[in-house]
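Schema walkthrough. Field components (list of strings):
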Amino acid sequence: MHIPEGLLPLDQAAGWYVPAMAFLAAGLAKLKRLLKERPQARPLVGLMGAFVFVVSLMPVPVPGLGTVSHPCGTPLAAILLGPFSAVALGAVALLLQALFFAHGGISSWGANILSMAVGGSFVGFGVYWGARRLGAGLGIAAGLGGLAGDLVTYAITSFQLALALHGHESIGATWLAAFGSFMPTQIPLAIAELFFTSGVVVFVYRRRADLLSGEEMQS
Amino acid sequence: MSGRHQSPSVIAGASGFLGRIDPRVKLSAAAAFLIVNLISRTPLAQVAIIALMGLLLLAGRTPYRRRLLLIAFPSTFAIFVVASQTVFHGGEVFASLGPFDLHRDGLFHGLFLSLRIIAGGMVIVVLGVSTPLHRLCLAMKWFRTPDIFVEVVLLTYRYIFDLRAQLLRMRDAQRTRLGWSSRGRGLASSRMLGGSLFLEVYERGLRSAEAMRCRGAGPVAAGSLPQLGRIDRWALMAAAALAAALAYLSLAGSF
Amino acid sequence: MIILEDIHFSYPGGAAALSGVSLEVPAGSFLALMGANGSGKSTLLKHINGLLEPQAGSVSVAGIGVGKKTFDEVNGIVGFVFQDPNDQIFAPTVLDDICYGPRNQGLSDNEALRRAQRAAAQVGIGDLLERPIHHLSYGQKKRLSIAGVLAMEPRVLVLDEPTASLDPRGEETLMRILLGLHRQGMTVVMATHDVDLVPLYAETACLLNRGTVATQGPLREVFRDPGLIGRCHLRLPRISYLFDMLPDLDELPLTVGMAQRKLEELLEDRESVRLTRRDEENVSRLTIDMREF
Amino acid sequence: MIILEDIHFSYPGGAAALSGVSLEVPAGSFLALMGANGSGKSTLLKHINGLLEPQAGSVSVAGIGVGKKTFDEVNGIVGFVFQDPNDQIFAPTVLDDICYGPRNQGLSDNEALRRAQRAAAQVGIGDLLERPIHHLSYGQKKRLSIAGVLAMEPRVLVLDEPTASLDPRGEETLMRILLGLHRQGMTVVMATHDVDLVPLYAETACLLNRGTVATQGPLREVFRDPGLIGRCHLRLPRISYLFDMLPDLDELPLTVGMAQRKLEELLEDRESVRLTRRDEENVSRLTIDMREF
Ligand SMILES: Nc1ncnc2c1ncn2[C@@H]1O[C@H](COP(=O)(O)OP(=O)(O)OP(=O)(O)O)[C@@H](O)[C@H]1O
Ligand SMILES: Nc1ncnc2c1ncn2[C@@H]1O[C@H](COP(=O)(O)OP(=O)(O)OP(=O)(O)O)[C@@H](O)[C@H]1O
Ligand SMILES: [Mg+2]
Ligand SMILES: [Mg+2]
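Field assembly_structure (string):
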C-alpha cells in the first residue's frame, strides 16, 4: 500500500523527498557505473526494473487469510540484485505504478521510496546478510529478510501516515494505532512475503546456483 | 484482489485533444495543480480541480469503467482518511460509536484531506491517461532530469508488458497443471513463478545484450520534442492562469 | 465432447478476438485449428480449459460446463500444451517437472513417479529424468512439456503450435507421438499454421478468420475452397499447386500419398514410365521413412 | 565476401558446438544454412558478425578480419536479425527503435529519421511509426526487427530462422522482402529448418551436422543426397517424394515449378490430359499467387 497523492502536506512531502533522493542518487550512480562498463547491459537493467514492478503486482496466496495479495518484492529484489540497485529500480517501479494505476503519487513519491524501496531493500538485505553471517541457511535467511523488509516497509508507512494525520494526538500514539490497526492483515502478509522470498531464492539457487553465487549481480 | 489487473498498455495509448498537447506543458500544468492542491487551505481549489479533471476525463477516449477504476485506489484511501481523522483528530465530540468518540473538526479535516487525495489522484490519472510514457520521458529529459533515470524508466517501460505477459502465461501454465488448486499449492507455485521469472529476466538480458551490441549499445532515451505549437502555448497560459487564480483564492481564504 | 457455443471474447481494451465461434469436437477426433497470426487460435484454445472465460456463449467439455468453479475438474480432463515450452517448464529437473502435475492432483509420490516415468518414456525422454532443465535442447523441452501434461492422464490434448521451431525430424517424431496417442483414443486439438503438415495427421479442421469460423469440417472439405483459404492468409499444401495445372481434376491431392495415387492414374497406361510402388516396409528410396507424408 | 576458415567453438562447460567449419559466401549470394536443432546454426551465424569469437580459425567479412577490435566496423556491414524479435527491440516506439542503430552510428537525427522511414516502408510498416512496441503483433515485430537492421544500411543480412511462427502469408511476404533486397545486391544468409521453403529462394545451401559442415554448394547439389540429408535430421522438400516413385528420374524436382515442368514432360504426348500452363499474371486458379512456390 503506497501513500496516495495529496495526503501529505507539502512540507512533509518535501521533507521525505530529501533522503529519498539521496538514496535514489546512490542507486542510480550504481546503475550508471554498470552501464558505463557494460553498455550492452541496458536490457538487463530494464528487465530488472520490470521484474521489480511485476513482482510487486504478483499474486501470492496469504496463509490464514484466504486471500491473494501482492508482496512488496523489494526485499527479494535486494537479495537477488543488491540493495542499491533495488532502491533505484523500486523507485522507478513506484513512479510507473503512480502514473499507470494512480497507485501512490508524485508528491508522495519520496515518502513511498523511503518506505518501500529504501526500507524494504536495505532492511531486507541487511537481515538476510546478517543471518547468512550467523550461519542461517539460504532459505531461512532470505525468508527472514523478506519478513523484516515487509514489516519495516509498513512501520515506515505507518509513521509517515501518523506524522501527517496525528492531529491533536501524539505522533507516537497515532503511529502505534496505525501500525496496530494494520497488524491483523499485515502479519499474515509478512508471513506470505517470508515464504515467498525464501521460496524464490531457494528455487533460483536450486535451478541456477551459479547465478546466486556469482557476486557480479550482488550489491 | 485477483491476479488479473487491467493492462497498463490499454491506458498508455493517448488520443483526443489532451493527447495532442505537448508533454512539457502537461507536466508543468500537472505540477502546478498538484502544488496548488497541497497548499490551498480551503476546499475551493480541490473542488475546482476535481471538476476540471473530471471534464477532461469525460472528454477523453479511455473506456468509461477504466477511468473509474483508476481512481479506486485514491478513493479507498480517502475513505480511510475520513474515518481515521474523525476518530483521532480531536476537538469537539459530536457523537460516539462504541469505544470511539467522533470529532467534528476531525470529520471536516478528514473530508478536506479526502478531497485533496481525490483531486491529486485525478490530476495524475489525467496526466497518465493522456500522455504515452515515452513522451513524458522526453519532457522529463527536457527539464534536466538525469539521463540515467530517464533511461532506466524507458527501459523498464519497454519490458513491463512483456514480462507481465510472460508471468501470466507461466501462471496459466501452472494453473492448467492444477498448481493453484489450493492455497498451499498456490504458495509453492508462486515461488516457482517468481524464481522462473527472475531466471527468464537473466537469460533474456543476456540474449538482448547480444542484440544490442550489434546495433551500437547507445542510450535508448534519444530524440527530442519539437518546439511548442500554438495550441501548446494556449494550453500553457490557460493552465498557468487557472492555477494562479486558484492559488490566490484558496490562500487568501476570501471564499 | 468439446462443445463451444457462440463464444464472444475481447481482451480488455482491445478489439474482439473471438466474435461468435461455435465448434463441436467429438470425442476421439483429431482437429487442426488453422488461421493467420492473430486470428484467434490461441484465444479459442484457452476457452477449452477455462483459462479464458467467454463474455458470451458457453463451453462444455465431457458434459462439464467450463467455468471458474469447474476449472480444476476440467483441467484434469484437458491437457494443455503451450506453444513455448519455456513458459511451461519450471522445476529444476526433468523428473520434478513431470511430477508437478500429478502431485498437484494429490497423487502419492510413488504414483506420481510411476506416471512420470511412463510419460517420459512415451515421448522418448526416459533417459533424461535427472537433467537440469536448462541443459535441454528446444526439442527436448518440447517433449518434456508434453510429458508433463501426459503424466496427468488427460483425455483431451490441446496443443498450441506444437511444431514451431522444431527441425523436420523433431516435427515428425512429435506428430507421431500425437498420432499414437490419438489412436489410443485421445482427443487431440492442435493449433497450427503448417498447412503441409495438417493433411497428414488431422481428420477434421477448423479455419479461423478474424475471430470467426470461416469453415470447419472433414479435412478434404475444408481444403476444397482455395479462395477462402487464401482470405485466411493460408494456402493449400504445396503439393496441391502442382496438380493445379490439370484443369479437369475433380479433387486436388493434399498429401504426397494422394498425389502419388493421382500420378499413377494419370500414367497408368504408359509403357515408357515405370512406376515403383515400394512396399510398406521400404516406402521410399529417400531415406527418411515418413509413410504417407 | 564472408570467409570462415576452420572455425572451432565450444560454449563454456559444454561440448563442442562447432568443430572445424569452413564456409565461403560470395558477395551477393543467398545462402540457406540448414541443420537439426542444436547442430550449430545460431552459433555459426554469431561468428559472422563477431558476437562469438572462434577458439580456433578465423572469420573475415569484406576483407576485414572479424574480432573484438573490428566489432563495430563489421556490424556496420553485417545486419543481424535474431530469431525472437522481442530480444532485439529496445526502444519504446517503432520509430525510436528503427532510429536506434543509425543514431549509434553517429548519424544526425534527420538522417536517422530519413533512413528509418525508408526502412519502415521497405518492410511495410511505414504507417506504424508512432506505435508503442507492446501494441504490435508478432509479425509486425518481426518486420520491425528487420527494419531496425536495414536502417543501418548493411551490405550483408544474416537472419536466424526468420520465418518461424509466421503464418503462410506472413512467411511469403517476408521472403519476398528478402528476395527484393537480395536482387538489389544484398548478401543474405539465413538459418532455417524449412526445407520446403529453401529451394524457392536460396541459391546455395550449407548443411550443418553436429558442428561440422555435412555438405555445401548450389542448392540442387546439396539436395542430391537424401541419405545425408536424413542424417542431418532434415528431409527433401515434400514435392520430391512424390516423384520418388519414378525410379529412372535423373533429378528430383525440389519446387512446385520444377515438378510442374517434370510432369509436363511425362505427360506431353498424352491426348487425354489437357495441361494448362497459366500465364505469368495469373499463375494459378488457386488464389494465393506465389509464383514459383
Ligand atoms: N493478452 C492480450 N491482450 C490484448 N490483445 C490480445 C492479447 N492476446 C491476443 N490479443 C489479440 O487478440 C487477437 C487474437 O490473438 P490470438 O493470440 O488468439 O491469435 P492467434 O491466432 O493465436 O495468433 P498466432 O498465430 O500469432 O499465435 C489478436 O488480434 C491479438 O492481437
Ligand atoms: N549459451 C549456450 N551455452 C551452452 N551451450 C550452448 C549455448 N547455446 C547453444 N549451446 C549448445 O551448442 C550447440 C549448438 O547450438 P545452436 O544454438 O548453435 O544450435 P542451432 O542449430 O541454432 O539449433 P536450433 O535450430 O535449435 O536453433 C547445441 O548443442 C546447444 O546445446
Ligand atoms: Mg497463438
Ligand atoms: Mg538457433
